[in-house]
């Protein structure tokens, strides 16, 4: 199947464009998962230290940009 593909500049360019798109999507998903995991670990540590839900909420809100 791959032997039947004509590997010229156009097909290599298209393959590269698709590869960049796949890597960008995979990287975005990886970032989202790691960020969520990190936030959840932080919240768990704060709860283990005895912080109240209000304290956890206040700390988490302090690190987020304000929405207007």
What does this molecule look like?
This protein is mainly alpha-helical and 68 residues long. The protein has a domain at 32-68. The chain is 74% helix and 0% strand. The protein has two helices and no strands. The termini are far apart.
Give short descriptive properties of this protein.
68 residues, mainly alpha, 2 helices, 74% helix, elongated
Q: Which structural class do the helices and strands define?
A: mainly alpha
Tell me the number of strands.
0
Proportion of beta-strand residues: under 5%
The number of helical elements comes to 2
Q: Give the C-alpha Rg.
A: 22 Å
Q: Considering DSSP H and I runs of 4 or more, what fraction of the residues is helical?
A: over 70%
The largest β sheet comes out as: none
Order of helices and strands: HH
Distance between the termini: 55 Å
Shape: elongated
Mean pLDDT: 90
Low-pLDDT stretches are none
């Amino acid at each position: 199947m791959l032997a039947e593909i004509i590997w010229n500049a156009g097909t290599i360019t298209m393959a590269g464009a698709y590869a960049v798109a796949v890597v960008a999507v995979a990287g975005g998903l990886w970032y989202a998962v790691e960020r969520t995991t990190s936030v959840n670990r932080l919240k768990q540590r704060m709860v283990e230290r005895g912080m109240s839900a209000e304290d956890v909420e206040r700390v988490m809100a302090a690190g987020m940009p304000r929405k207007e």
